[in-house]
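User: Could you check the structure of this?
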Amino acid sequence: MFLEYWTEQYGQDSMKGQEPSSLIRFLADIIMNSANPVAACEADGKLIAFNTTFENLSGYAPAELKQLNWLDLIVAGESEIFNLDPDTEPDYNTRTQLENQLICRDGSHLPISYYLQAMRFPGDKAICYMVFITDISKQLRLQESLRYKAAFEDMLGNISNCFINLDIDEIDHEIERSLQCIGEFMKADRAYVFTIRNRKKVMDNTHEWCAEGIESYKNKLQNMPLTDFKWWIEQLQESDHLYIPSVLSMSDDHPLEKRILLEQDIQSLLAVPMSSQGRLIGFLGFDQVQHTIVWSRRDIALLKMLAETFAYALERKYSSRRLEMAIRILDNISEGMMRITQGRITWVNQAFTTITGYSYDEIINQEYRILGTPEADNTSIVAEVRKCLDFNNTWQGLVPGRHKDGHSFPAAAFVSEIKTDNPSYRGTFVIFADITEQDRLNQERKRLKQQTAQLQRLNSLSALSGGMVHEIAQPLNSIRVLVDGMLYCHHNELPLSNSEIFTKLADISVELSRIDEIINHMRSFAHLSNKPELEPCTWNEVVGRALKLLGRQLAAHGIFVITDLDPNIPKMRGNLNRLDEVMVNLLVNAMQSLDLSGREPKNINCRTFTAESHCFLEVSDNGIGIDTELLDLIFEPFVTTKSSYQGMGLGLSVVQSIMNALGGQVRALNGPQGGAIFHLELSAITDTI
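Assistant: Sure, the predicted structure tokens are below.
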């Protein structure tokens, strides 16, 4: 176009038909192949030439452009530059730089920057203008983006500043106000906050802003299972944002998430994670973001900083509510609590004032020693507490307490040390309870337990009565025979020497001693002291003494007692009378079990042995055994299976009490071939003891 025009206007000399000069060809070639649009106009603006780039930019065909004026292609406002006086010579060295909008063939307006260069070839009076055009739409978009980003940064910075020292009650309102500011700025449909409740494995839409005419989903999106958003959460955990420019173009690898978004009419999505202490607690999201800027790393970082601000504010709110709830709970529990700092009480709960009689204002800043009894030696207790706190930060035990009115009470206390980096917050936390009533109940329980044990002994005595009668009857019969023999000799005047008389009297004394031993044994069995005195003894002695009392009775029930006693078993520290009671209870229980089993033969096995400095006695039978459900409860008082295992209600509880008092252990289990097995264990007396 330019070559044709210049050839026609300026490229011929006075001789018709001469080819254009090489200079004109060169200039025309440069302009036609330029990447920048170029056009030529007459002084009134009529287009006379243009290059291909200009044609593509405007969208017009060459034939159409030849019919147009430059003024038809730009927004009105700059036409005066073409209304020059033809008689006025322009300044050919001046370029006029202008900005306007090119009106394209499709009606769109394209921002351009252009400058005009006046031209006149020698020998010609016509003036033309070269229009060198630059498409500045990208530059303007960049400038707009930069302005947008600057405004975006300022807005997010201002929002973050609003949360500094924000009152707890204002956090929810401020988050939703912030969502509105950001949502309107980004021209989004919705802006929202979702929080995750890990304990229930759900998440809730807790805060939301919607543009005018957009339906709210806040009330609908509650208690949503985290399993439905597994992919979504994984993306937020692994990256600093999740951006879906088009939900429709999402991969079908995640059909559930795609379906959920489409059901909520979400076409595009931007979300950034909210984290607290490295844990994802929710996310900040936007739907249908209309702005066309590309989200830079800085934009995402700014949004994430805002999300972290929201997370911090929400955690502060939740922590405050949990603290308020904890304080209400502490004020309503029955145990007294106090915090001690540098020897003075700095906080107490409501139960403290009920237990001690002091009001909050009366006790605060008082020394903790005001709660101790004057007559008690608290120095040793304080030293013990301090030692335990230094070792494992806790102590628990019984301490004497004092009420405001002066009366004392026993208290169970738990003390723990508060350690922080801030010295002003260090101190001691004490939980205590008035156990006056519990102490009374424990004493009563102890009395009842002793009474129960006594009843059990009497019950055992009834079981021993048959054997005891036989044991006493035998020496009585011997005494009767000896006395009757002497009386017979006397009445029949048969000779009886003094030596024979004294020999028979000695035999009678032996038999009486035997009766006395049996009676004393039974008397000691019925009246045992609460605190048994330890003495050296062996399990073999215990078995022998018990079988001496019950042997004939067991035989009368058709029971065979098989003993396997270690002759070298060492002595142990025990109490024979108490261990007699243990053995008698076990033998009586075995006898009752065998009577119920109906098995033949009826066997009781008694075995003694030593292992790892401990002396063991094993008593087993082939009776009905112990119900599986009762194995863990069999030593509890009044646990009985009398319907199937008569006599287990109190005896085994007494057995365990005696073994515990002697520092030993007892264990019950069922034998592999049936029947019950009892293992009893006491420490052996070694040379080092």
